[in-house]
Amino acid sequence: MPTCEVAIIGLGLMGSSALHSLSGRGADVLGFDPLIVGEARGSSHGSCRVYRRFNFESEAYTDLSDRAFEGWRALESTSGRAILRPSAVLEAGPPGSKLVAGSRAAAARKGPITGPTMGAEVNSAYPAFRLPNDWDVVVQESGGILMTEEAIRAFREGAEDRIVAAAARIRPTPTGIRVSTSTDEVTAKQVILAAGPWISGLVPGLAQHLKITRQAVGWFKPAKPETVAYGEFPIFIIEGKRGMIYGFPDFEGRGVKAARHDHGPVVSADDWHPPATDEELEAVGVTLAELVPGAAGSIADRDICLYTNTLKADAIEDGGDEFIVDRLPTDPRIIVASPCSGHGAKFATAIGSMLADLVLDLQAVAPRAFRLDRFSGFAPRPSADR
Length: 386
Known about the structure:
This protein is α/β, with parallel strands linked by helices.
């Protein structure tokens, strides 16, 4: 039976990054994924994601963002592709906004921040906005638009002959992990599971700790195109009355891409249809009309994304919506990588390197916040007394 050192199940951003990192370190690696780059399914489909250096979700993310930034620039250098397009990131909310306070705190640990701090200043600096004058604001100048599909292509360059375009299942055996497609079977010494919303089908007991939600995305034909052009208008995240809304400048000529970051309805891993409805995008459109009128307009295009989030942990204090990057406690040959959570894309180069470390260095340990043993079902069991 054919063998390899490492098999990767799922080649979105995280799996492809791990493939790139392992190939670059000389590992004998195979990747499996039935989806082609650009197909409208999978956690990493679509042209773009937000890169933020300072993250309100967790203080652990800023150092991870810095590592990822270095990785994105290195990938651009080696591939010759434009992958991370610089853009300011503007975050705003009512006085006392937790979103703004969290990003300000993260930024303060790296040095002073400049730029608008109140809604009135934003309205003057960026004519597309009409924020309440007393709103809190923070602007990150070190953000960017992550070109998702370009990144995946760059990760895969030079490793095309190591990619199997098929869905795969695994079966642990004493001599290795059997990786099976509909036509072939390979034995791997170790396996990385990076299957996004499908990952719970590969790891028994994981489904009870995950929640998959349907997220509607729209492209809005801007009322004032000149005010939302790339270079003139920032990426934005707004904590408003209708939830947390994020959006991009019109950098593709398709309009302003915008969506809710709050969780949508719970769905299954294969629930990509029907397309986003007007009802699902209503809160986004109304928020743009009220607070970013230069970007408001009719819906020019629409899409669906799926967020795969962890539920609250029960073995440690953990609010949920976190990543999983860890060896499976019951079989350390299997590494679980489901770092989606709706905002994991920006970290892909750092996480791919982390996954390679876990494969190649048996002493490497996953970050505490990302480990599986925060769930009691995966916590090590004490040995019985003799």
